[in-house]
Amino acid sequence: MSAGRATKRGSTKPVRAKLLGAVVLSLWLTACQEPYRVGEFVWVEWDGKNYPAYIIDQKSKTRFRVHFDGYDDRWDEDVTLDRIKGRIEDGKSVSAPPPPEKVARVLG
After folding, report:
1. How is the chain classified by DSSP, letter by letter?
2. The pTM of the whole model exceeds 0.70
């Protein structure tokens, strides 16, 4: 039986409408997500933990240069969107986890 024909149990139209609605909603939500911008304060995954960082440059739509708050410029790095874990609210006080082992070795 083809997907477009009615079945003995009833029409396939309600199922199609629900599926189409879910797809449209998903696309709409994705399109509404505001991309990150230079100057934003964000959480960035670094060595398995999230650290506060500033976006200092945009390399492409999915790649950003970040500066980790409280660290020397030598630790700045380019990160992809999957490592940016969200925005930090303006004026919100945050604390970072202890530095990764590789940083602690250099610092100390």
Report:
1. --TTS-BTTB-SHHHHHHHHHHHHHHHHHHHHSPPP-TT-EEEEEETTEEEEEEEEEEEETTEEEEEETTS-GGG-EEEEGGGEEEE--TT----PPPPPHHHHHHH-
2. no
